[in-house]
Amino acid sequence: MAAGDRVATVPERMADHWRAGIFPLLNLFLTMHRSLTEHEEMGPSVLLIYCTVCVGNIQKLMRERNVPDAFVATAVLPREWVVPMSRSAIAAATGLPRETVRRHVGHLIDQGLLIEDPRGGVTIVPGAIQDRGYEPLLEKLLTEFARTGEALLRAGVIEVKPGG
Questions:
Q1: Of 94, 71, 90, 93, nearest to 82 (Cα)?
Q2: What pTM value is reported for the model?
Q3: What domains are there in the chain, each with its CATH number?
Q4: What pLDDT is recorded for position 22?
Q5: CA distances, 77 to each of 68, 70, 71, 132 (Å)
Q6: Which terminus of the chain has a smaller tally of CB atoms within 10 A, N or C?
Q7: Is the pLDDT of residue 10 over 70?
Q8: CB count in 10 Å sphere of residue 137
Q9: Which residues pair with 160 in a beta bridge?
Q10: Residue 130, C-beta contacts closer than 8 angstroms, at least 6 positions apart
Q11: How far apart are CA 149 and CA 18, in angstroms?
């Protein structure tokens, strides 16, 4: 892909290719779930909560048009870029009952995977990518994501549109 190109869905091909499109997407989901739970030995609800907090914590940074170069890799983010998530926000985002979220968040804090933030809510532990050895896991997930993209391109349900 060239700079400015974008990936787009091809609605007119989707209806005739649902199976060819859904298979790589579900396979990606299952591969990601298996990889993540093997790395941290979490059940599905706990993994969902942890991933929700991970995404929620960096949403402010990722909404920037130009993410500062210092923060695109694995550098520990300054706390002003990290958005804590309340247990209520986690419950709303995941669809899990608040009591389930409260219980699992407490367990994740006890395991050292989440911390209470002084501003309220919880965040992932600073430096978790390096300290917990997530780099190889992230590489594995990105490789599977690329395979999924290729499968969707072959199925014709997505395409690369030239920018400009």
A1: 71
A2: 0.79
A3: 6-161 (1.10.10.10)
A4: 87
A5: 11, 9, 7, 16
A6: C
A7: yes
A8: 17
A9: 7
A10: 74
A11: 15
